[in-house]
Amino acid sequence: MAKLSARGRTELARVEKTVYPTPPDLVTERRYTTAYMSDGTLLQKCDVIFRSDGKRHSYGWIVRGKVDPGLTVEQWLELRARLGYKQVPTRRK
User: Fold this and answer.
1) Domain-located, residue 34
2) Is the CB of residue 73 less than 8 Å from the CB of residue 13?
3) Domain for residue 22, yes or no?
4) Considering its fold, how many domains does the chain have in total?
5) pLDDT digits (tens, 9 = 90+) for 34-80
6) Is residue 93, in this structure, part of any structural domain at all?
7) In which domain, by residue range, is 36 found?
8) What's the pTM?
């Protein structure tokens, strides 16, 4: 599992997308959150709500890759918006 604050990096942008599976399988909702970090790393986590008892569960942050060199935060946000993601406030300490 990855940490948002590992190696002194900071979060530059965060987007999320909520998916409602049809027909519902084991979960009724999946929320994917992706964070663009200052070192160019992309971290992603998936949060779900289980159909059986309505409990929430987070699978934690994982490294999804690196951003291409030269791609700015604004360009990355545009690309994510085309895929249905919405920008949310970043977590600042």
Assistant:
1) yes
2) yes
3) yes
4) 1
5) 999 999 999 999 999 999 999 999 999 999 999 999 999 999 999 99
6) no
7) 6-85
8) 0.90
